[in-house]
Amino acid sequence: MPPKKGSKKKTPANPARAPMTTSLPSKAKLQQAEEEKARLAAEEEERKAAAAAAEEEAARQAAAKSSEPDNGKSLSPEDYAAQLEDNELQEFLEKNGDKVSRESRRVVTKYEGERRTLRATGNTGCISFNVSDWLDENDVEEILKMHRESDEAKHTVTTSDETAYSLEVWKLYHTLLDLGFREPHIKEVITLGISTPEDAIEHLILSYPENQLPSFNNQNLRPPKNGQQFSQVATGDAPVKTGDKDLLDTLPIGLPPDTPAESLLKEPVEDPQDDISSESEYEEDNLDPALLVSQYLRYMRKTSKITGVWAAESSKKSKKKGNAGVCISQSVPLTKERSQQLSVLKSKLEKLKTDPLFDQQQAAELWEREVEEERQRSIAIARSRTRKSATGENKQRTGSNSRSRTGSVNGDSGDETIITGFGGIKLGRNRSRASSRASASSTDGGAFGTIFNADPENEEPKISTSTTSFVRDFGKASELNPSSKKVLEEAVVGRYTGAKVTTRDISSSANFQTEIYVTWPLTGNLPTVFPAEVNEIDGEGGNRKDIYYSVNTLKSHDGKSITTRFRMVNISCPTKLQADYFLSAVVLYQLFPEEKLYLRLNSIWRGYWQELVAEAKLETDKQEKRLLKWVRSATEDIMQVASPPDDKGRTTLETEAGDGKKIFYESLEFMTTQQIRSAYEAKVTNPMYHYMLQGRMGLPIWAYREQLLQAISENQVTIVCGETGCGKSTQLPAYILENCLAAGESCRIFVTEPRRISAISLAKRVCEELGEMGTDLGTNRSLVGYSIRLEGKFTSKTRLIYATTGIVMRMLERGNNLREITHLILDEVHERSIESDFLLLVLKKLLVVRPDLKVILMSATVDANKFSAYLDNAPVFQIPGRTFPVRTFYLEDAVELSGFILSDDSARRNRRQVDEFDIDAIEETGPASASSYEGYSVQTRKTMARFDEWTINYELIVQLLASIATNPDYIPFSRAILVFLPGLNEIRKLHSALLGDPNFQVGWEVHALHSTIATEEQEQAFLLPPEGWRKVVLATNIAETGITIPDITCVIDTCKSKEMRFDEKKQLSRLIETFISKANAKQRRGRAGRVQEGLCFHLVTQERFNNYFPEQQVPEMLRLSLQDLILRIKICKLGGIEETLSSALDPPTPKNVSRAIDSLLEVKALTPNEDLTPLGRHLAQLPLDVYLGKLLLLSSLYGCIDVCVTIAAILSSKSPWVQPFGKREQAETARLTWKMGDSDLLTTYSAYSGWRRAVETKGVNEYEFCNKNYLSSRNLAAIEEMKTQLFVALADSGIMRLEPEERIRLNRARYLRRGKTQFFTVPDRYDSNSKNEDVVCSTIAAGFYPKIISRDGKGWKNIANNQSLNVAITSVNRKNNRIDWLSYYNIFQSSNKYYDAYETTRVNDIVLALLCGDAEFKLYAGAMIIDGNRIRFVFESWKGMVAIRILRDRIRSLTAKRWRSIDSEISPGDLQWFDIAMRILGRGKVKSS
């Protein structure tokens, strides 16, 4: 029981015991009961309200239905059509609107995400590209103008589905609008038939100036559909400042509720004596003390009229009431005259107050009474004006955007008048409303407290004439918790630090209205989007009747805050809570439309939230239908002029025949069996045939003739191993031909030879042995012919053709399975060239398809069992040779015989000069020459101790030849001497040395054999010298096998050859000089024993030969780059690359295959699907690494062939720079004197050009020039030799088309003429830009890409794999800090385990932007991404970016056309684009004015 009132709690007897407790009703339970009761009442109220709303809605629908016309009969045809169209648009909108919105939003989100990501500040991969550095304004305008005038700038519709196109256009409209582009511009784009965002953005960039396009710097360009951004919010004016700030800041107060307004309707007439202008100055000295108070009132009245503010003086009575005074009238303009009067009045008032006879208390009370009367009179005037306005419009409320000072509250009064922030005056209620107003200070409005209170001195205060037109009662349930007001405050404060929400009562009638201010400090976080402006004034200046609330946002003039004001208009609520909660729900929806805050509201306000959503949707649908109507109209117009796509732009690879166009043989003439036999009988009856047959029968192979023919007939593959001189290369093809002709069988036999000279010489020999004249070769009178690159002699009657291996490979590329060939003989397969191994690989597959094809493999030294196992256990025939014994000697024997003494000068000249560019020094293994040789003279021992086996000593060879020619024991061997040398450069040097030696001036012929020497000159080496004359033949390994010089009796073998090797370390192929194998040495030695006992000198020590020479050569497939081979596989369509190569005789490692594929993908020789491109077809024709091959192809287009061919030759040979021991610094200084174009390659080219001028200039010693500049004349000559071969390859492939006179000049440089180096000058049409360093550097970068490094802090980074590295210490760019990009050719790991880039060349930004990689332009993001973000440029200019994109596309298009048809002329239009590109690339940076 509850304790009695007033009773005290009894103290427990035992203090240790706890006090007694009494059971009391739980306050929580009581509260719960009350709340439950209130809840039930609220639900009942809610049900009643819902029922009333349902009845109202049903009545509305019935009224609407009754007002509808009966089946449209009462509608005019135009109205009926409009209604049908509206219904159709609504249906289309409902069906597709959500989808279009989602897709457009997805595109916008993607574009905005790309812009944020790609232009992120601080991103190391983001590089700013300043277009003005490379293109001036004229360049940009010229590019854009040419593009606009071209056909490619025109857009055509490629679909006939009008509905689908309308959807695309609809989506495009919203996408571009959300991206920040202007609506008129968007509509113009759509009317042009553009339906994709990228094309639309490009057209907008081309068509409009930069200032009418969105800025790249604005990270949120998308204007919100239902809001505004911070940048769009206006700034308010500063508050009015006058001399009397306290008076101007005073706010009006309300009138007592019982004050009769009618008594104050009449405005007071100003008393003349109070007129400021009529008052005369009063002499205070003569003033009567009884008049002091009256004079005080006159001064105060006069001051109030000047300032426009009536304020009561503080008195004891007023202090108690807290009434310090209010502003009740308009501010009067404070002119200069009035300011002076005000100053005088203030001084007089102060003087009055100091008078001891002045009654200050009485004066204050009287003045306060006057202030109150004046205040009541002003309020009555305001009410009168409000009523007059209300009678003119029924329930209309007006809003104003004019600004006046915010009113303040009079705490002493029960009623109030509020001068709103926008100038309207609301006459309000009393009691609780007054306390609500009192809680809102003049600063609660945030920006509106100072922004919308501008009070122009010459403007009357605007009195609101609005009235409430609609009262909505949400029921008692709407006032229950949770309240929308509380949710709003929590949401705003919780999401925005420092933000606040202020509510004000602005009621002017018996019902309630509210306004809410949401203020955000600019120092805190702000909303991304502010609510859209909803003004109370329509476009014609009248009050809007179609809104229930207004929304206005302004920044404060002092830049400290931003405020949004929400105000109820045209609607009111019966209670203050409902008004507050109603507007709070509106604010919640406006500020957080996407969030589910409505779930926290009670059911009433959740329902109203749905109403707001429905209203927004209705308004959006109305706008969308207007847009759809326009879209449909535009689509109809576009479809009427649209044409179906044509096939003009389609290209096929069928026209890209490449080498397939070349005919390597003529189709065989059809002959009957009898005709074939008759032809054969005619041959065998020829006396010459019988004469030659006698010699043929003496060859060792004749004894195996029948066995061989039978084996070939019974087996698809036959292997023949014949020693040198057995006659296999000439006789076996002739046996097959004769056997077929005798049987009357049609046949065509192809014999592959590794070298051109072998094919020609063997064809001539077989032609003669068949009883034909040598001049008949390749004519209708002969059955024999030959086919080599760019030369062939054959007709439709030719049955036996000797061809190079490359010709047969080209035939396989045609894809006809060699259908006209019956027998294919592969000669010299022991050489294991990459072409012969590939041919075996192809034939192994071809034999399955062509069971009638007979294949014969022939070689002098071959691992027969290995070949037999590879070709399904093919039978093997061993045929002995017909050779004489050959006496073999070595280097020490040659020194002993010749008495050669190695002088100091000779030792220096022949010592290898090793530098870090040369890797070959470590490739050759074995001991140095022995210092002690038993049985040899002391001089020989001394010479051998200093002799360098790796170099060729020409003095030794000349002395050895002289000794053989004069020593009685060796004179019988001197009739014909064959000298094996590694290359043409060595042949030239020895040729010059022999012609300059007196011993060889008379009675000696010196001939040379090399693939580059004219055929007529090479034939002289096979002829017997005149009686009494002797000959010396200088040859490379061309004379090792395949051809036979019959009278050779002595061989001098340098034991060296030049071969291409793929450097795994450098990842490039190089032509290097290396030692031969024992099998090669055996072949060379065998050349001396054909006619008699022979003599052979191997110019290496016997120890090296026996212990360090390999038995066989390494197959080229294992030591060369596989790039060319892979291209062949794709051309021949053999299937998968890895699968095909795995079936080779000696398959390469998967690592090398993968590297080769990656290289081909990088240079675009293969597509990502590993299909061959047109560029790949041309690269397959060049004997170079694909990067160098691409460099040469591009140089033919960019007009810098000479310098690029020289660079390719330099990189494919040993470096021309030498660094003698102890002279590294001097050599480096000499090299830097040739520095050119911030490029190691151009620096070397510059030195090469200096050497060439020295060679061509009479009186200049080549060797002195090289020694002075630390250059190797030997390596420079090898570079020139390689360069000439590359020119020939370019001419042969049609990449560089030469006139007949130019071809003669190339042949003159190509072929040996008296041992003197001759140079070929490239025609100007291919070499117009070789002197332009910028164009050359651009070509190098484009050819080597992606071998590019970029500056990364103090070091460099490889863009291909992000590997950190340095520039090589020997590079001219080592300390060049002006460069951000460099191309390189190879990377080495230095001794300190760091990686260094070699052969670097400067690369400009514009080169990467125009020529390198595959670029993706993100127009909206203003970014260019090259090869999956290897390089990323961001632009600040829309038009500059598009100009770069257009020019890049044009260059790529021109290049692609070039690769598709290498011999076609450039069209005038393409030439104009090409000239612009070359001008920009060749100019470098634009000079700043």
From TrEMBL:
> Annotated region Disordered: where?
1-77, 215-285, 378-417, 429-463
Matching SMART domains: DEXDc, HA2, HELICc
Bias-annotated ranges (Acidic residues): 270-285
So what does this thing catalyse? ATP + H2O = ADP + phosphate + H(+)
**Mind listing the UniProt keywords for this protein, alphabetically?**
ATP-binding, Chloroplast, Helicase, Hydrolase, Nucleotide-binding, Plastid, RNA-binding, Transit peptide
Kindly indicate whether the keyword Transit peptide belongs to this entry: yes
Which Pfam families does the entry link to? Answer: DEAD, HA2_C, Helicase_C, OB_NTP_bind, WHD_HA2
Q: Which InterPro entries match?
A: DEAD-box_helicase_OB_fold, DEAD/DEAH_box_helicase_dom, HA2_WH, Helicase-assoc_dom, Helicase_ATP-bd, Helicase_C-like, P-loop_NTPase
Bias type Low complexity, positions: 397-411
Query: What residues does the Helicase C-terminal domain cover?
Result: 956-1133
* Ranges of biased composition (kind: Basic and acidic residues): 32-49
* MF (Gene Ontology): ATP binding; hydrolase activity; RNA binding; RNA helicase activity
Sequence ranges of Polar residues compositional bias: 215-234
| Top-level taxon of origin | Eukaryota
Against PROSITE patterns, the record matches this protein to: HELICASE_ATP_BIND_1, HELICASE_CTER
Compositionally skewed regions (Basic residues) per UniProt: 1-11
Question: Where in the numbering of this chain does the Helicase ATP-binding domain appear?
Answer: 709-880
Can you name this protein? RNA helicase
